Amino acid sequence: MGEEQDGAPYDESEHCKEVYAHFGLAYYESGVIESGIANALLYGEFLMGWKDRIEREGKATFDRKIYEAEFDAYMNDQYAQSFGNLIKRLERVIGIPQDLKDVVAEGKRLRDILAHHYYRERSTEFVTRDGRDRMIAELTDMGEKFGEMDRRIQELLEPVKRKLGIRDGVIERFTAEFIRKAHAGEPMDG
After folding, report:
1. Domains of the chain, residue spans
2. CA atoms within 13 A on the CB side of 183
3. Largest CA distance in the chain
């Protein structure tokens, strides 16, 4: 324990846990970006490819088992890619405007800091109360930047979704139903 803060005794151990929690959240949010890019590639490459195939060959040639096997293989391949390779592929498949390229490059840089050397580079800050406070502020800022990056990538996908015939709100309704079922312990369809 230590001096009081807001009427409560300061607990250094709890303060350290708070830094770890903020780190975990920021790192999680960087992973959301990787998944978001994998999903963007799913729309822009895999689903557009299937749409073109169906338009070319007709709906009667659609085989759900083949589609599901190719879908699983495609997503497994995306999740095996590095963050940098996902970004390169997103640029090639969908295209990234320059202002978003800058945001994505900064996001990758921040993610790499978190993944490879965040605590090592802040070992001196971590041992002081003020240093931990600065780390919490920095990690919160990183999380906000990852959130903005995700929002911008989702905006980038809107024209692709329209080409695929995905109407506004469809994904949000599906997600809400999925979450409802998960909370209720209900089986998921398909």
Report:
1. 9-184
2. 6
3. 73
CA distance 24 to 139: 9
- Distances in whole angstroms, Cα of residue 163 to Cα of each of 13, 57, 58, 62, 151: 53, 18, 17, 19, 20
Contact between residue 43 and residue 159 where contact means Cβ atoms under 8 Å apart: no
Report the alpha-carbon distance of residue 32 to residue 49 in Å, rounded.
Answer: 24
CA–CA distance, 40 with 163 (Å, rounded to integer): 13
Residue-by-residue pLDDT tens, the chain, 190 positions: 455 666 778 899 999 999 999 999 999 999 999 999 999 999 999 999 999 999 999 999 899 999 999 999 999 999 999 999 999 999 999 999 999 999 999 999 999 999 999 999 999 999 999 999 999 999 999 999 999 999 999 999 999 999 999 988 888 898 899 899 999 998 877 5
φ, ψ at 61 (rounded to 5°): -85, -5
User: Rounded CA gap, 4 and 10, in Å?
Assistant: 5
CA distance 68 to 190: 10
CA separation (Å) from 156 to 96, 97, 100, 111, 174? 8, 9, 9, 21, 20
Q: Would you mind telling me the total number of residues written for the chain in this entry?
A: 190
